[in-house]
Specification:
One of its GO terms (molecular function) is carbohydrate binding. InterPro entries: Carb-bd-like_fold (IPR013784), PDZ (IPR001478), PDZ_sf (IPR036034). Pfam families: CarboxypepD_reg. The chain is mainly beta. It has 9 domains: 148 residues, Immunoglobulin-like; 77 residues, Immunoglobulin-like, CATH 2.60.40; 82 residues, Carboxypeptidase-like, regulatory domain (Immunoglobulin-like), CATH 2.60.40; 84 residues, Immunoglobulin-like (Sandwich), CATH 2.60.40; 87 residues, Sandwich (Immunoglobulin-like); 79 residues, Sandwich (Immunoglobulin-like); 84 residues, Carboxypeptidase-like, regulatory domain (Immunoglobulin-like); 76 residues, Carboxypeptidase-like, regulatory domain (Immunoglobulin-like); and more. It is built from 2 helices and 74 strands. Strands 28-27-30-31-57-55-59-60 form an 8-stranded mixed β-sheet, with no helix packed on it. Strands 18, 19, 21, 22, 23 and 25 form a 6-stranded antiparallel β-sheet that branches. Strands 69, 70, 71, 72, 73 and 74 form a 6-stranded antiparallel β-sheet that branches. A hairpin with a 2-residue loop joins strand 21 and strand 22. The radius of gyration is 29 Å and the shape is globular.
Amino acid sequence: MFIVAGVVVLLGVALAWRGLSSSGDVATPEARVSASRQGGREPSPAVAREGGAPATSAERPSGTPEVAEPMREHEGVLLAEVSGAAGPVKGARVTLYVLSPRDVRRGRAAWFVAGRGSTDAQGRVTLAARPGAYLVTAKADGFATAREGVIRPVGEARTQVRLTLGAGAVLEGSTLARASREPVPLTRLTLSPRTLLSSRIQDVPEEEQHAQVSDARGLFRFEGLAPGEYQLEALAPGHAPRRVERIHVPMSGLTVELDGSAFIEGFVEQADGAPASGADVTAAGMGAPLHAETSEGGGFSLEVAPGVYEVSARMGSHTGAAPGRVVVGAGMTVREVRIRLGAASSIAGVVRGKGTGAPVEGASVAVVLEALAHLPNAALVPVASAVTTEDGRFSLEGLAPGAYTVNVQARGHRKWSREGIRLLDGQRFDVAAELEANGRIEGLVVDEASTPLAGVHVAAEWRWGRRPIEEVLSAVSDEAGRFVLEDVPPTDVYVAARRDGSQMHVREKVSVKAGETQQLRIQLSGEGLLEGTVRTEAGKVPQQPVTVYALREGVARTESLQVPASRDGTWSMRVRAGRYKLIAWLSETGNQSGDQEKAVEVEVGQTQQVALQVREARHPIRVTVLEPNGAPSIAATVMASDVGSSEVLIEDVTDAAGQVTVVADSVSGRALRIWATNGGRRGELPSVAVSQESVTLQLAAAGSLVGTVRSAGGRAVDGFRLVVSGTRSDEDFVTRLESEFAGARFNVDDVPVGPIGVTATLADGRAGAVEAVSTSGGTTQVEVVVEAGGGVSGRLVDATGAPVAQAFVDVDGIMSPETGPDGRFSLTDLASGPRRLTAWSRTTARAERQVRLEPGKVLDVGDWKLGRPRVESGRLGIHFGMDGKDVTVSALMEDLHQGALRVGDVVRSIDGTPVLDVGQARERELGAPGSPATLLIRRASHTYPVTVTRAP
């Protein structure tokens, strides 16, 4: 397994451009103000039908704007039914919010009011609503607000949603300064409900937030809240903003700890070194961009939230940027940030249709800072944006030197991105964006008897995380079982189908082609109900949020399902019949606290009751990762293994405070090796006792790389792709940086320390590579000579000769696409000379081989046989879990001990010594390489010994 340093945080909701209006347009607040100034009339709200009355203009709150194009009843309606403990509620005020698509120029999705109305005597109101994603709220005097997220699918004329009004709950607590423990008065607290839709984005409509200010003693109290999960944000003068992601309401005694503000200070100089007075300085990163103007001496000071920033300056036609990212912690001041102004850079180009060459007019083009793209809670506000002209052209001027990502979006086409564009002083980078036309999927849903099924919800999802594809509206099958998914991006799509009320999808992979229609047949099997409770070891309801996880036997982890447990510790999910592994864990520490497992069988039409247990970690270690300057390291990858081993047992990512909790309950020894990476920075603690409550790990500074690219034949070099990769082979991770440059020069920071490989590839296929050594805090200079590129191809097979799918081949940091069912791979435009090939997959061991590539030739390595998955010498290749107080077999390495052991077996002892927990099982498991191990197992009502062999 490769642990790739860096975290790609991807978020999405099931929307498409055309779902928001007949033309697909959505009014921005600016557009609505402009229309008002020009005498334009704002659209009226949707009129309620079944006895409900529309809200009057006097009742309309300010804040969230209305959609530009009113909802129309012929496009579909949403029926809201509002009830309380005594039955239907008449006169409840219902608001319908629609979530707009994510616009690359806006950088995020946005809410708009789609309609308002009040319920009739039956507690009903019908509002026009075209297909899309909505938040529905109901308010009535004497009740807490009820909210529900709902998807209006294509093909469904009327969608029903039920909202239940109840008594309000209370959230109370206090705001304290973390360092002094003194109260922080006048803290503004904003509470936002987490709903089906809002949990995927960072905000909810303004009117649905709750605000309070703490008093002189730092105390606060929210009343009239609907019970459920919320997100809390706190803001106080002189203190850094604080966000608490998940809070259960009702709650009392909540303590919100605030850190001191952070500051970035420095100087801006002109090209000749003179102070740049009156320059505009911008810090972009956490939250909205912040600005300051330099003094007569060129100095500036910015009060910022703790986090990561790109700091740039502009004065007239000149721009500049601070070298590297600026990382600052709470109560910390980063000084001596120096920016030298030079000629401004630019990105320009054309947007065309792929295959047609026709210019795309009206495409949105936006540039964001690449350093912030994968950070949690970073505000990805574009630094520049444009709309293509009639000939498809655009130009983005006045950019400071730095690394950028260009995003292009146009209706009817797949989104296009180009990462790693690095601009040096005064450079112009030309981009040609070729957009692929979207395709469509026509399908049929049937049951086990091939009978068409109506009312089945169908959505297009990405492979990982069951994330819906934002551009594609979900659909529902008609009476003939048929459905259509429009505007599907041309790529591998997973079409998920589920019955109404079900959680577990049947997912079918579809390779969508540009401009084409794909046919799909989905067969649903019988379902059953999984439900139960989650309790602590003491038999009490957990006070912290709990996640329940289900994985059907024989499927990939990408097909797993997670649902939150309710406040009372209950949970329920309707799933396909089959055998499942169930785990519950405390959401704060993730599945590290989820060693309690149940293996259950779900039968068609039956309800399976399951009592799950979750426990507080016995050996939690709070790891704080610091940057080289002492600031918290955000989104650092933290890994843990047994002392002296590189096998990753625990992996997690630090939060905005640079912290993560490592749970050492399930390790075999009394100490852990803990290490962390963040870009090219790295740090390690060789031995941490599991009894320690907290540790601090500081990253060492990365290196920098500068150089030039030269053609062996003397031809000019005017742009290239550069890949920098660490060449360590003693660890299960690799750091890889990919950048694009104009001209023949390059400058890359945050380079991993130690041996590195540097590869340059030109657009015409010429390529070259060199090896170098990077030093911490130092600058390494290299020259890369390019010539005609070579290539390598072959087929990956396992020990039996069968092709290996879903595998990868890496050539000094350049990675092949994932292999298909035939196991074949191919890489071109590679530097000639000695090259190292690395292959790996989930089902095989990592393998390496050395080859020599010739200029202009493709080397066919034939069948490359990969071994079985790597098992640490002396171990059994078994993953252990807990079912109550029983140690169980949680998972087996593929094809290992098959028949002798199975998932769910209870392990009583190993080699005659009882095992009481996972840590003891791992300790007893380890033995002499190649030696036998005898496990006493219990399966069903039988207990008997099983002898297996440890890895050599």
